Amino acid sequence: MPGSFKTEGVVLRSIRYGEADRILHLYTAERGRVNAIAKGSRRPRSRFGGRLEPFFRLDLMLHEGRSELCTVTGAATVDGYPALRADGDAIDAAARGCDAVLRLLDSAEPNRAAYGLLCRYLALLDRGAGADGADAAGADRHAVGLAFRLKLLLASGFAPELGSCARCGEREGIVSFSGAAGGVVCGSCEASGFPVSAEAHRFMAAAIGGPIAELPPVSEPARRQVDRAIGDTLAHHAHVNLRAVA
To answer: Which CATH architecture has domain 3-79?
Structure first.
């Protein structure tokens, strides 16, 4: 029904529109993906200030009418992640994370797990900003980005099978990953996949099953395998291609 509603949300993308407006792509706690227009928001004395930029977490008042775009009528900052905005690498990581949410989650249905994950990821990047490529806990920022994507796959229903062979169910002898099969595969089924190390397999299991801030060490070759596994899974099952983590 048309009318006004309140929700908390993160600005995924902000696009200049007309002489003084912005089109916003938002991911919200109560409404999932919302596209909105903020009229007059680029005027010097706009009541919105600079808070309608990407990565801002906001308390929003929106009006839903007949247009496909809601209208932003109020916005208050919950968290602006200021340290993140002063670190070029952290900005890039946040942009890739928001782009992944934008591409994977286009439904108006709420997904609290995905929203909470996005907020935790931005907070982690903010705490680790300026830490020479590491997050607040000392983990490699690229590894944290991969963990974020794996958890996003779980929240969006595309998590790969990691506990046993995705084709035959065998739990031993895992040697490869197959995007077509939807997970790790054993030696008997490896023709459909690419080699994956035990290290990469352990990292994927730990990333999906544990806190995003508590990751095991992972080498660059294993990170590349994990990145490929995520990409192949989404290409086969969600028909989505994401920008590389780095």
So the answer is: Beta Barrel (2.40)
Total residues found in the chain within this entry? 246
DSSP codes joined into one string, 160-227: PB-SS-TTT---S-EEEEETTTTEEEEGGGGGGSEE--HHHHHHHHHHHHS-TT------HHHHHHHH
- Residue ranges covered by each domain of the chain: 3-79, 88-237
Q: What is the CATH number of domain 88-237?
A: 1.20.1440.120
- Burial bucket for residue 199 (CB in 10 Å: 0-12, 13-18, 19+): middle
Please give the average pLDDT of every successive group of 10 residues along the chain, which has 246 residues. Answer: 88 95 96 95 90 96 91 96 92 95 92 96 90 56 94 95 94 94 92 91 95 89 96 93 82
Strand 32-38, strand 70-79: pairing: parallel
